[in-house]
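Hi V.,

Quick status before I head out on leave. The structure for the redesign project is tokenized and pasted below; the design run finished overnight.
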């Protein structure tokens, strides 16, 4: 252990790691700083710096931003709306059969990564079915009633064209069922 921690062996190790082009400029008695100059960015091939102007692809030069730059659901953000937000729950559903429950053949587990449907239950007391305005996009659910307003950014992308909504008047709850649209992987291959 003494041979590794001695000053001369550390200087020798630093010289081995030192580039040959920089050897001419350094003094032999000064501590070598080439080790401290190495960073994680120096690993791998040398990246060429690109110098040039940034090209903005815009159809209309008077526009401030492109429509791709605006996050989905930003048009619904209305912070000045005095209506209160209703209570809601987000639940996930799986389609499982006996082969999943008893044998575990489809590799499904209880996590949300294996769920096919998302169920959103929204409590709407003193609301009629005809007063509800519901708009669903891929990542946003927008619900408006005369007393309540809910702008919900969904945790997963959904199929906004094929969803189901039902109003349970005795419970005063709107139940929205949406199919989660995911990339196919070893679990979700339907």
């Amino acid at each position: 252990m003494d041979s590794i921690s001695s000053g001369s062996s550390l200087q020798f190790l630093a010289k081995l790691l030192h580039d040959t082009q920089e050897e001419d400029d350094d003094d032999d008695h000064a501590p070598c700083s080439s080790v401290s100059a190495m960073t994680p960015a120096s690993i791998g091939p040398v990246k060429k710096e690109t110098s040039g102007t940034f090209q903005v692809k815009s159809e209309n030069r008077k526009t401030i931003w492109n429509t791709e730059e605006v996050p989905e659901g930003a048009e619904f953000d209305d912070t000045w709306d005095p209506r209160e937000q209703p209570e809601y729950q987000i639940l996930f559903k799986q389609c499982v059969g006996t082969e999943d429950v008893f044998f575990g053949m489809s590799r499904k587990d209880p996590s949300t990564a294996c769920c096919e449907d998302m169920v959103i239950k929204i409590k709407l007391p003193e609301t009629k079915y005809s007063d509800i305005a519901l708009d669903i996009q891929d990542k946003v659910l927008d619900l408006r009633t005369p007393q309540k307003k809910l702008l919900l950014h969904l945790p997963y992308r959904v199929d906004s064209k094929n969803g189901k909504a039902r109003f349970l008047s005795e419970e005063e709850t709107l139940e929205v069922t949406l199919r989660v649209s995911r990339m196919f992987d070893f679990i979700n291959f339907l």
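Above is the designed sequence. The radius of gyration is 30 Å.

G. will cover questions while I'm gone.

Best,
W.
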